[in-house]
Design a protein that fits this description.
Helix content is 47%, strand content 15%. The strands form two sheets. Strands 2-1-3-4 form a four-stranded parallel beta sheet, with helices on both faces. The chain contains eleven helices and eight strands.
C-alpha cells in the first residue's frame, strides 16, 4: 500500500443497542442474519421468525441492559480501540468502526470513507477466533457493501489473530491483574476458568475452526502460568439446539464440588466489555459460583483500551502490511 495516501483502519464488531428502545430492533437484526442463526424452514421465514423471537426475547434482554446502564458500551470501546491502533501506526492512518447489527453499519462508514478520500484500508475483525457466525458474517457484509458503495476501495483483511503474541501477552497481563485481586496468601490456589462464547455444535461439525483457535489461545496464554490449574467453559448458550460443551455454569458446578474456594473467570473470546462480561459473567456467573460455595470469585479485567493490547494490535497491522 502507498504510504503517501491516507490508509483506513476499519474495525469490525457485532454492535449493541444504544438505548433500551433499541434492544428489540437490535435483536431483530441479529436474528435475521442467516450467517449467524439459521432458523428453520429456510430464508423465506427467517425474518418472520426473527420478528417473533425478538419480540419475546426483548423484555428479558432489556432488563439486562438496564442493569448495566441502559446501553451497550461496545461501540465506545471499539472506537477507542480503533483510535488507539491507528494512533500507534502513525498520522497516515484513519480509524473507522463498522458494526454488524447496529449503527454505524457498513454502508454509512464506507460512504464516509469515500468522502474522506480513503482509497486504501486494512479491515480488522475484532473477533480473535474465526467463525463464520461472527467474523465470516461481518466480512461478507463489508465486502458486499464495499462493492456497491465504495468499489474503488482497495483493502486487505485480518480475519483471525488467536495466536498473535501481542494478544496473548495482553491477555496474560489481565490474568495477572485478576490474580492480584485475591489475598496474597491464596493467590497460588486461585483456579482459572476461561469462558468463551459458545457456538451451536453444528458450526464445529462442519469444520469451523473456532474451537481450535480458542484452545490455542488458552494454551498459549497459560504457558506464562506454568502449573496453575485451568478450565474452559462456553457461555451464552440458549435455545433448543446442541451447543459446544461444557457450559460455563457446568464447569463452575464441578469446581465447587471439587472444593474450589478461589476462582478467576477470564473472558477469552471478547476483547472489550459488553453485556456478556458485565451482566452474564459479573452478575449471573459470579452469583452462581458464590451460591455454590466458592468463597471468592472475580473476573479478570477486559482488554478494552489497555495500552499493551492496543500496541499489540498496531504491531499486528504493521506485520500484516509488511508481509504484503
Amino acid at each position: 500500500m502507498d504510504s503517501q495516501t491516507p490508509i483506513g483502519i476499519v474495525l469490525l464488531n457485532m454492535g449493541g443497542p444504544d438505548s433500551l428502545k433499541a434492544v428489540r430492533p437490535f435483536l431483530y437484526n441479529l436474528f435475521s442474519d442467516r450467517d449467524l442463526i439459521q432458523l428453520p424452514l429456510g430464508s423465506v421465514l427467517q425474518k418472520p421468525f426473527a420478528r417473533l423471537l425478538s419480540f419475546f426475547r426483548a423484555r428479558k434482554v432489556r432488563e439486562h441492559y438496564r442493569d448495566i446502564g441502559g446501553r451497550s458500551p461496545l461501540l465506545d470501546w471499539t472506537r477507542r480501540q480503533a483510535e488507539g491502533i491507528a494512533g500507534g501506526l502513525g498520522p497516515a492512518y484513519r480509524p473507522y468502526v463498522v458494526m454488524r447489527y447496529w449503527p454505524p453499519r457498513a454502508e454509512q462508514v464506507l460512504r464516509q470513507m469515500a468522502a474522506d478520500g480513503i482509497k486504501q484500508a486494512v479491515v480488522l475483525s475484532m473477533y480473535p477466533h474465526y467463525t463464520g457466525a461472527t467474523t465470516g458474517s461481518s466480512l461478507n457484509d463489508f465486502r458486499r457493501t464495499a462493492e456497491q458503495v465504495h468499489p474503488d476501495l482497495r483493502y486487505s483483511v485480518i480475519e483471525q489473530w488467536y495466536d498473535w503474541p501481542g494478544y496473548l501477552d495482553a491477555l496474560a497481563g489481565r490474568i495477572k491483574a485478576g490474580i492480584e485481586y485475591f489475598h496474597e496468601l491464596v493467590r497460588d490456589e486461585v483456579q482459572i476458568l476461561f469462558s468463551a462464547h459458545a457456538l451451536p455444535q453444528k458450526f464445529i461439525d462442519r469444520g469451523d475452526p473456532y474451537f481450535e483457535h480458542v484452545m490455542t489461545t488458552v494454551r498459549g496464554v497459560m504457558e506464562q502460568f506454568p502449573g496453575r490449574p485451568w478450565q474452559i467453559g462456553f457461555q451464552s448458550r440458549s435455545g433448543p439446539v446442541q451447543w459446544m460443551e461444557p457450559g460455563t455454569e457446568e464447569v463452575i458446578d464441578r469446581l465447587a464440588e471439587d472444593g474450589c474456594e478461589n476462582l478467576l473467570i477470564v473472558p477469552v473470546s471478547f476483547v472489550c466489555d459488553h453485556i456478556e462480561t458485565l451482566y452474564e459473567v459479573d452478575v449471573e456467573y459470579i452469583q452462581h459460583a458464590v451460591g455454590k460455595g466458592i468463597r471468592t470469585v472475580f473476573r479478570s479485567p477486559s482488554l478494552n483500551d489497555q495500552a499493551d493490547f492496543l500496541k499489540g494490535m498496531a504491531d499486528l497491522v504493521r506485520h500484516h502490511l509488511d508481509r504484503r
